[in-house]
Amino acid sequence: MLTQTSEYALRAMVYLARKGAGTFAGVKEIAAATGVPMNYLAKILQQLARTGVLKSQKGFGGGFRPARPLAEICLYEIVDPLENVSKFKECVLGQRLCNDEVACPLHDAWKRISNEYLGSLRNTTLQDVADFRVTHAPEEKPQTHADPRSTESRKGRKPKSGNGFPDIFRSNVRDLG
Amino acid sequence: MLTQTSEYALRAMVYLARKGAGTFAGVKEIAAATGVPMNYLAKILQQLARTGVLKSQKGFGGGFRPARPLAEICLYEIVDPLENVSKFKECVLGQRLCNDEVACPLHDAWKRISNEYLGSLRNTTLQDVADFRVTHAPEEKPQTHADPRSTESRKGRKPKSGNGFPDIFRSNVRDLG
DNA sequence: ATAATATAGGATGCGCGGGTCTGATTTAGC
DNA sequence: GCTAAATCAGACCCGCGCATCCTATATTAT
């Protein structure tokens, strides 16, 4: 899964994408809307500005906005500089020799997963996210989540539920109906 | 991807699975065979013994061996207590509301990935790993890895290649030909 | 000038990866 | 049965990066 930092970055970018227009949004506004800790968010936004996905503007009325058209910014581009995404391409078992010819027992499965994961991040652009309808009828077969013998509640490591920030896909969605 | 700790655990379990028989293998032996730092490996093995996938034996001739038949130990069971696997089941964007009806833009893709990942870990047993042939002819179409605009070499964070430990799927494989 | 805002940097807490040392327990050898 | 060696078990310690907070400083609109 993604790092906390990456998740925050995505939340912010998604907020900006759905907010639309070319106006600048300040850290305070984005933090309030996404529930990301403001001070930390500031640092993340700076990084995103440095890597070129955000344009920043100092001073009164300044803030951040996507640096390029939404359709030209994929999620991979946002996440990649913030963490070591490429680890997904290495052998799960750490074998030196692990390719299509000489493979570890998990190679094939892992390659499928890795391809699908990286592919999703690369193929999804901010435009897709902005266009996304919040409530969509379940057309495809209700493919229930795998439930590997009740993983939760075994080691309550900081439960994230009920953090009380507004869901960005519920609020701030105006012109989709 | 997996934690370093989980990868170490898998390496050790795979080694024990392929070693076969009911004899005990000491930390020193496993560490030498898998290239995992011995002191740290000792800790991991203790945990695995506590969670019930390994049986430990103190004293001369002691060590560790799988606690149950290989076919009854899946990889998920090994990895789960060592890290927060369940994070894969949460919304990538941290939305409170994210299910099949009200979903975030990445929900479907993420669910596919999550299912495949957790499924692989749950469906693969140590027996499968032990039976696995090292070199297998590429029957399926040579499904090349996705290459998201040359991720490597952008930030050389501790290259893992060339660590010089013996590949466990190459050595210690005796009766598979 | 003032207020609002981004930018830069340091300080802190925590968990993971990794190491060291001391016990506790079992077996081998006498 | 005693002792010594082998081995697991557990405690403590450290470095590092992530996540977080705070305080300046630079920039800009009014």
What is the strand and helix layout of this fold?
The structure is a homodimer of 177-residue chains.
Chain A: H1 4-19, H2 27-34, H3 38-51, E1 54-57, E2 63-66, H4 75-79, H5 107-123, H6 126-131
Antiparallel strand pairs in A: 1-2
The structure holds a DNA duplex (30 and 30 nucleotides).
**What is the tally of beta strands of chain A?**
2
Instruction: Please provide the ordered H/E string of secondary-structure elements of chain A.
Output: HHHEEHHH
- Count of DSSP H/I helices of chain A: 6
Alpha carbon gap, first and last residue of chain A: 32 Å
Structural class of the helices, strands and pairings of chain A? mainly alpha
Largest sheet of chain A: 2 strands, antiparallel
Largest interface, C-beta within 8 A: A-B, 73 and 73 residues
Q: Please state the oligomeric state of the protein chains shown.
A: homodimer
The general outline of chain A is elongated
* Side-by-side strand order of the widest sheet of chain A: 1-2
Share of helix of chain A, binned: 25-40%
Report Rg of chain A: 19 Å
Low-confidence stretches of chain A: 138-165, 170-177
Summarize model confidence as the mean pLDDT of chain A: 76
Kindly estimate the percentage of residues of chain A that lie in beta strands according to DSSP.
under 5%
